[in-house]
# Entry
Amino acid sequence: MSEIRNFRAGEMAVATDAAPRLSEAFHSLDRERKRRTIAAVAERIVAHADELTALDAAIGDGDHGYNMKRGVEAVLQDLDALSAMGLPDLLKTVGMKLVTKVGGASGPLYGTLFLALGKELPAEPSRAQFVAGFEAAIAAVRARGKSDAGQKTMLDVLIPAQRAFAAGGDAGVVKKAALAAAEATAPMRATRGRASFLGERSVGHVDPGARSSSLMIAALCDEFGAG
Ligand code: ADP
Ligand code: MG
# Structure
């Protein structure tokens, strides 16, 4: 009898501990889960700051890792307040922090992405609402950057990741799409941003903003069930 009870208790524990599937991820984001998700994304950037700076040193001015680290550290400082907010305010507040702290070209662009997500998404978005909100936020980045896919920027990760998600991909699929898309910027010639000043010499290097986008998406997907 007690064995059965223990078995049942074990089952319950497994069910509660398991990461929610990406399709369910945006429902019932409680405070603790928000805190963990924000921290995971921010810490992924901190862990890769030197790599991002090295990528930017090759085809830019070598500040992208430093810029992003400064931005996410400001986010981490406000973790308590952020995780107590509803999703729209949380995203808008993160966006404002990125605009003011990251600087460079990427600060306003990431700021626009998060501000637009905050504007588009309801407090508990369904999968379909998240797909649509992510698409609208990418459109806002394109408008702000006067840029589009194929120009060797963060959009070359954001767009394919959104498409993989829109096509029904789970967290593992979206993560793989984002990481592969960042790698796929290496053979591209930059036609937007500082790297475009290098022309042909930008070929052969991964775009730093594409890589930072892939890192944030990968961390988010890991939180929501990617292996
Ligand atoms: P800066 O180039 O001002 O030093 P960062 O180094 O922080 O800014 O960010 C560079 C990244 O910003 C690039 O790798 C690229 O992905 C992204 N980026 C730059 N300009 C644009 C743009 N017009 N549209 C989209 N992304 C852009
Ligand atoms: Mg730079």
Notes: Residues 56, 60-61, 63-64, 104, 194 surround magnesium ion (ligand 2) (CB under 6 Å). Confidence is low (pLDDT under 50) at residues 1-18.
